[in-house]
Structure formats: structure tokens, C-alpha cells
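Entry 14. Ran structure prediction on the chain below.
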Amino acid sequence: MKKEPAALNLTDRSVSISVMPRAAHVSEAERRLALLKAAFREVSEKGFSEVTLDDIAKRAGVSKGITLYYFDSKEDLYRQLFVWLIDSIHARMREAVAAEKEPVAKVRALVALIFPSPSKNRAFFRAFVDFCGLAARRDGFREINERFYAGCREIDAGIVEEGMRQGVFLVRDRLEAGSTMRAIFDGLMMQWLSEKDPDAAFAGYRERCEREILQYLTGRAPETGRAPRGREER
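Output, C-alpha cells:
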């Protein structure tokens, strides 16, 4: 049985470093993880249609034959890449939300996780937009994307439910509100990607995302005068 790869930490530099471990004896799980990371890098830079298995193998430091040992095709690799990504994202979302007690703090923690830095957001959403195009045409990809959004909506709805229970958020359908939160996240991220200078615009979009979600959930503008965020990571 093939081992599952380790979870991806979207807030560290794990995707931007050399992907193949240098140890003399590399386990199957490590090699498979290296291939997934290499595929992520290649697709985020070039797009799915332009990437070949040779490109991924070269980036991972292995042969194309090794790549085909772990994945049946480029399409299979790409599907498995997004299964790995969404499982990792869901885990980190739950971790970030669980670390906060107040509903408003949970929203802010989620925004901070989803908007970590311009470089990380650019890499992920370029690949994700490509994936969504495939999901609109192929059932195998659509099912993975459906699972991604179902998990996100459930986590978002849990925050809404807790906020309503505490009397902090307006009473509304929890799943519908979770879906609306996700629409705000994705809509603003897509607009940010289209900016002429996305790095300069990043902080403004992140602050706007937090503000719009909290205003939607509470029915009033969020408090101002919060301490400024730390220096932006590029």
C-alpha cells in the first residue's frame, strides 16, 4: 500500500525549497511528496497544459520512470496533488480556528491563514484557477473540488454557528453564510490576482476581506484602531 504524503504547511517555505531530500536512502513517502511539491511548483509557474511529466521529474530530481511508478499519468498526479493540498488546507484551517475562542478572532485567524503573503497566495491561486478550469470539464477533478468547497463551507459554517450562539453574529442559515464567506474569500483573491501590482495591493485586499466578512456576519462595520500587522512577507 502506498503511503500518504505529509501535510503541506502553507505558511512555511516548504514548497519553495529543493524538493528532493538529499539523504542516501529516500523512502517512498518522501519521494512521492517530492513529486507532489515539484508538480505544484511547475503548475503554479506554467499552468497544467504546459507542464510535462519530464518537467516534474526533473524538478524533483528523479526520472520520468520513477514518476510513473507513483502516478499513472500527469492527470493522475495533478488529481493527487489537489487531494493532498485540500487535505492540508482543511487541517490548517481547523487548527487556526480551534486556536481562538472568540468568533471574531476565529474569522481573523482564517483570513490571516488564507492571505499569508503575496508569493504564497500567487503560487497557490494560479494552480487553483487552473484546477478549477479542469474541474468544470472533467468529473474526476470536479469531485475533488466539490470536496474542497464542502470542507471549507463546513469550517466556515462552524464559525458562524458559534457566533450566532454567542450573540455576536446575525442569525441566518449557517451553511449559506459559510458559502457567502467563501465567495468573499475567492472573489477578492481573484480580483487581487488581476491587479497591476499585486504585491502592493495585497495588504489592502486582506484587510478588505476581513472587514467585509465581519460586516456581513455582524451587520455592522468592524471596530477600527486595531494594532497594525507585521511587515509583509513577500
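Residues 93 and 113 are 7 Å apart (CA to CA). Will compare against last week's run tomorrow.
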